[in-house]
Write a structure and sequence with these properties.
Largest sheet: none
Shape: elongated
Distance between the termini: 54 Å
Radius of gyration: 18 Å
Membrane topology: Multi-pass membrane protein
Order of helices and strands: HHHH
Keywords: Cell membrane, Membrane, NAD, Oxidoreductase, Quinone, Translocase, Transmembrane, Transmembrane helix, Transport
Helix content: over 70%
Protein name: NADH-quinone oxidoreductase subunit K
Family: Belongs to the complex I subunit 4L family.
Catalytic activity: a quinone + NADH + 5 H(+)(in) = a quinol + NAD(+) + 4 H(+)(out)
Number of strands: 0
Number of helices: 4
Oligomer: single chain
Length: about 110
Amino acid sequence: MGEINSFIQTVPLEYFIILSSVLFCLGVLGVLIRKNAIIILGCVELMLNSVNLLLAAFSSYKGDGNGQILVFFIMVVAAAEVAIGLAIIAMIYRNTKSVDISIFNKLRG
């Protein structure tokens, strides 16, 4: 296990921060620009995974497992979000025959 940490620590922490920031910005851009609900869910997952990458990098550099435990909980929340989100999208597709989010304002409860 010590070899893995020393290998990860050979990469500068700034690279992880830059990569995570770029991935997070791409996810935010995808959520703001795209109109397909499935792609928006994928962009939210991209944002969550960029945070996971940063947490794992900080945890590795600090030398404790607290960040990696938090990554596990974020992955559980992301899996639940995908399951619920896809169920909602399937129900909306069944009613409207589209996954375009501009249709959502026409739905009445």
